[in-house]
Amino acid sequence: MTTLVESEEHKALRSAVAALGKRYGRDYLTRTVAEGKPPTELWSEAGKLGYLGVNLPEEYGGGGGGIAELSIVLEELGAAGSPLLMLVVSPAICGTVISRFGTEDQKRQWLPGLADGTRLMAFGITEPDAGSNSHRITTTARRDGADWLLTGRKVFISGVDMADAVLIVGRTEDARTGRLKPCLFIVPTDAEGFQKHPIDMELNAAEKQFELVLDDVRLPADALVGDEDAGLLQLFAGLNPERVMTAAFAIGMGRYALAKAVEYARDRTVWKAPIGAHQAIAHPLAQAHIDLELARLMMQKAALLYDAGDDIGAGEAANMAKYAAGEACVRAVDQAVHTLGGNGLTREFGLASLITAARVSRIAPVSREMILNYVSHQTLGLPKSY
Predict the structure, then answer these.
(1) What pLDDT is recorded for position 5?
(2) C-alpha span between 265 and 252 (Å, rounded)
(3) Neighbours of 375 (CB within 10 A)
(4) Which end of the chain lies in a sparser environment, N or C, as judged by fewer CB atoms within 10 Å?
(5) Alpha-carbon separation of residue 251 from 29, 37, 355, 361 (angstroms)
(6) For the segment 18-73, what is each residue's pLDDT rounded down to a tens digit?
(7) How many CB atoms lie within 10 A of CB 365?
(8) Is 358 exposed, middle or buried (0-12, 13-18, 19+ CB in 10 A)?
(9) Long-range contacts (CB closer than 8 Å, 24 or more residues apart) made by 146-149
(10) CA distance 295 to 247
(11) Given a cut of 70, is residue 3 above it in pLDDT?
């Protein structure tokens, strides 16, 4: 298979997920946001149909596919107006890390539920004072007999209120050097000492953002995921899928906005001709479509490299895909709103809320400036500035 032509299986998956998304649509998501509820019905049905766990191993209830398939699921739901943000987190990051590095018990305990949607796991890496610098993470785990005690703070953690556990990135002391090294822990959301506080966001989304406070949360030895000495490798195994899935989220949102603008431009008539007949309207929409298609190609390349086990190649492509998709999404949404004029700012057409949402794809999970830093020194060989 090449990244240029999708397989028949991928086309069939895309068509089936699009049909599911169409049954729910933007109205469903808008309603759940207004009611302050998570998109439980869509999440549950997508899980029953096998879409949430399409990337997870078959022996644990998954579809046996990869990030290529999961990115199709998120993109098509987004294009229908009902993206599921937690697809980026629960199956893509947490499911991938556990399936690659977890113990047999961890896999059996978590993967079937993550695959069918009956269990959900959030991911906690960002801290108030660390930002993009993961080396400054201060959440620490220390041994207490056979247990671990985890202490620290996390911010902008999505969907904690929906989650059974959070995969927390902490640091432990290396017995040989005394230095702190990254490690990953599965922390139940009902653990003693675990506190969650909602962050008041201007962005209205079905999935809420939280600050976490971990106050000597006691964890059993088997809460540690993978090898204590390979935390960095395990962490990056989850971050590449995160970037690919963020690209899928952005491309889906951009496609949704563009489709609404194209429909409007075909129907809206001023001075005896549809406004879409005018090049000042048509060309920017055509350019937005080109940008989204190019971003999708890089996303497909990144997913293919990752699923083939090329973590280094996938890292470069995933960062580029996330950058390209974020830029394409923002431009598509902006042009869609502009095409509708005043109608683009009304609740009836539902595009104005995407102006804020589209910015997320530029900011999270890594800013476009940090991606440019990555490409500058990793791809082009330029010296680092930090």
Answers:
(1) 86
(2) 20
(3) 15
(4) C
(5) 18, 25, 14, 10
(6) 999 999 999 999 999 999 999 999 999 999 999 999 999 999 999 999 999 999 99
(7) 22
(8) buried
(9) 146/220, 146/221, 147/218, 147/219, 147/220, 147/221, 148/185, 148/218, 148/219, 148/220, 148/221, 148/223, 148/224, 149/216, 149/217, 149/218, 149/219
(10) 8
(11) no
Q: Is the pLDDT at 224 greater than 60, yes or no?
A: yes
Tokens of 360: 């997320």
Task: Retrieve residue 384's tokens.
Answer: 């680092």
What separation in angstroms does the CA of 7 have from each of 14, 18, 97? 11, 16, 27
| Contact status, residue 47 vs residue 92, Cβ threshold 8 Å | no
Residue 162 neighbours by CB distance under 10 Å = 20
Q: Which two tokens stand for residue 301?
A: 């390349």
What's the CA gap between 247 and 252, in Å, rounded?
Answer: 9
What is the value of pTM for the model shown? 0.96
Handedness of CA 181, 182, 186, 191 (dihedral sign): positive
Helices within the chain (DSSP H only)? 8-34, 40-48, 67-79, 86-87, 96-101, 104-116, 231-267, 279-307, 311-340, 352-363, 368-374
Would you state the structure tokens that stand for residue 165, as one six-digit string? Answer: 């556990």
180 pLDDT higher than 90: no
Side chain identity, residue 151? T
Q: What would the pLDDT profile of 75-114 be if each residue is shown by its tens digit?
A: 999 999 999 999 999 999 999 999 999 999 999 999 999 9
Q: By the 8 A CB rule, do 339 and 285 touch?
A: yes
Angle between helices 279-307 and 67-79 (to 10 degrees): 150
Among 317, 301, 367, 312, CA closest to 156: 367
Partner residues linked to 195 by β-bridges:
213
Q: How far, in Å, CA of 160 to CA of 193, rounded?
A: 15
Give the Cα separation of 151 and 132 in Å (integer).
Answer: 20
Provide the Cα torsion 102, 106, 107, 108; round to 10°. Answer: 160
